[in-house]
Amino acid sequence: MAEVSRKVLPTVLLMLLFTVIVVIFLIPLALLFVSSLRPGSDLMRYGLNFSIDWANANLHNYRLLFSGQNAYFNWYVNSLIVTAIQVVLALFLSSCVGYSFAMYDYKGKGIAFTCVLLVMMVPTEVIILPLYRMITKMGFVDNFLGIILPYIVIPMLIFFFRQYLVGIPRDFLDAARVDGYSEYGIFLKIMIPLMKPSFAAMGIYEGMQSWNNFLWPMIVMRSNNKMTLPVGLQSLMSPYGNNYDILIAGACFAIIPILILFACFQKYFVEGMTAGGVKG
Amino acid sequence: MEKQNLFKKFIYSQKTAPYVFLLPFAISFLVFFAYSIFDTFVMSFQRVAGGNTEFIGLKNYQVLFNPIFFKALKNSIFYMIVTCCIMIPFPMLLATALNSKSMRCKNMYRSLLFIPALTSVVVAGVVFRLMFGELPNSFMNQLIARFGAEPIIWLRRVPTVWLVLFLLCIWRWTGVNMMYFLSGLQQIPEDLYESASIDGASAIQKFFHITVPLLKPTSVYVLTISIYGGMAMFTESYILFNGNSSPNNIGLTIVGYLYKMGFEQNNIGLGSAIGVVLLCIVLIINVIQLKFNGGIFAKRKEK
């Protein structure tokens, strides 16, 4: 009996510990969800808490989101468009660059790679002022291109793709060359299919970055109906606060699709979001 | 025709191809990064008003070194240091506990702890702002009332503002950092622990003498991204205070100050000077940190 309890006790304690932590960590999201079923005026009057009259809980706030009386639906679509374009461009272009680092030796490679690391180290916030001036000169203020252009090649992705491809022996390329593939044919027809798993992980990494990006889209986008979702949600936090219905339900609805995707593609999410982690 | 063929041959040659692949980065680096850095430097010595610029020497820097700037700088550095101190040991302990043999349902707990990382800073900030609202019935005030405490105006006082900022950081990043350490733990050979057990080492001894030293590469990586994130922090404070002004600037960060000067007050010269200072700080910290820790990037290059 003592033998059994000595084995079971650590398990029980550990699981108890983690259950408590998980419950604490999920409280903010549970609060958000419960509050999204209440009228926004409740929130203004009583604050965000769990006291909810379940009899009067309803999906009214969610219906409001897509009623066309506000710009929420626009923001959602804008975010989807920006994220989709950014992910496709960043994946393709960054994988090209990573491929050149992994598979070729050429003059200037060392310098170029140092530049990649340099960009990785410097927060973009440092250069938002000149970047904004540039975008203004190009005429891309209040334009999706203004959000997307500075982020078409992502150093983090280059780094990751390089790591991924370094493992593939270069003889492989020579064999393909003998088979008559051109340099670009090898990349497009052989390497890209080989890189599929890394595309999934990096697509999610970049998708999350783009979907959640706040400061730069806030600076570039001016008109209300062109904002992306995070910028739009922030704009609802007016001091007069009659927008709390949309704010809370909208915040909730911004998470739900990601949660569903996470449930389906967990492996790639984890891989993507911890991509920088040291692997051996 | 001849020319076209030569061109085609040139583009398709094995010598040229890598440069073509490199081209997207080269262009975006030169146009968006290198030029911007250069422009920041130049503008930091100028008064910029619309299209007119005027060279004013070090005046921007003279104006810059004022108490508000130092407060913003202090806030950013304090935030960075404390988050580094929390966000390495705490997730490392959690990862070690989760990785232990006695643990069951590992994947479930791992995924659940990861969920906060999926929310955007804006959504997380909105929830925390309201949770820590000043109304007596806001969640946190209700909670402390259970323990007999009076309601607190969380976002008006220095200690509680920091508490909220750190909790927000812990909430969003614990799952991610834990995942880094979990993947680091998979690299540690099992027999190290077994032979330590045979030698009679306790769990605590094993943690400090095997786990911590062997997780060093992961810790250095997490440290690097935490420094980066800490110094660049802006959105969290912007959402918590619903804008860039907090009472007595308790929530003003250096990026917030850059935004305030450059965009809100349209003082582009001064904003650029802040950018230059931030750039120097980040580079110095990174160089020191990488030298001190043996350089994670250098190590990876060998592979």
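DSSP finds 15 helices and no strands in chain A.
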